[in-house]
Write a structure and sequence with these properties.
Layout (H helix, E strand, L loop, with lengths): L4 H10 L7 H23 L2 H6 L5 H8 L2 H21 L8 H18 L1 H12 L3 H5 L3 H21 L9 H17 L1 H8 L6 H19 L2 H4 L2
Helix pairs in contact: 2-5, 2-7, 4-5, 5-9, 6-9, 6-10, 6-12, 9-10, 10-12
Amino acid sequence: MSESGSEVRKAARKAPGRQQDPEGTRQNIIEVASQEFALNGLSGARIDEIAAKTRSSKRMIYYYFGDKDGLYLSALESAYAQVREGEAELDIAGLTPIEGLKRLVEFTFVHHHQHEDFIRMVMIENIHHGQYLERSSVIGDLNVTAIAQIRDLYERGLAEGLFRPGLDPLEIHWQISALCFFNVSNRATFSRLFARDFGAADMQERLKRNTVEMVLRYVVKAEALTE
């Protein structure tokens, strides 16, 4: 980055609206960048293109994020924060263990379906072997809370004699994520290969019900499911 911080701040002062809402500007950059990274990958995304689609400039992007890698990491953190915020709003603690698990699976399925950019960014990060996740001081804490939520739910289910003993909350999270992630990541190929529209509303509703049932049958005791 060749421009100094003072030069960037001067540019910001000249731009109407940016000075009054720096957080709004920053969030706008992240939203546009997320779309570009999801579409083109880290190497294919261009700062020029991102700047052209925001109410900002290249200099402002560098000022907020340092470089393209910094912007990518911020977009990744924002994507994970969004899904964890949604999980926190479910009020699972106020539901029975079985209903809480069902609500969590339904939320994850619908969230991933509605946020395809999140799935694509996770796929891109896996291509990079998770190296950018390692640099984040935020994402680790976010995912600790996700596992803690499942652990609390699972322990309540065990205490009430509803859930199978010996399961790992992290592995429960893995199974839920795997089913809901595949629904987005492989939808296009499955639709082409088998000549069926897996993105159709009726198919998505059916797949969501099936996903909930599979997770419940994995976690919940058979006798508790029939009660």
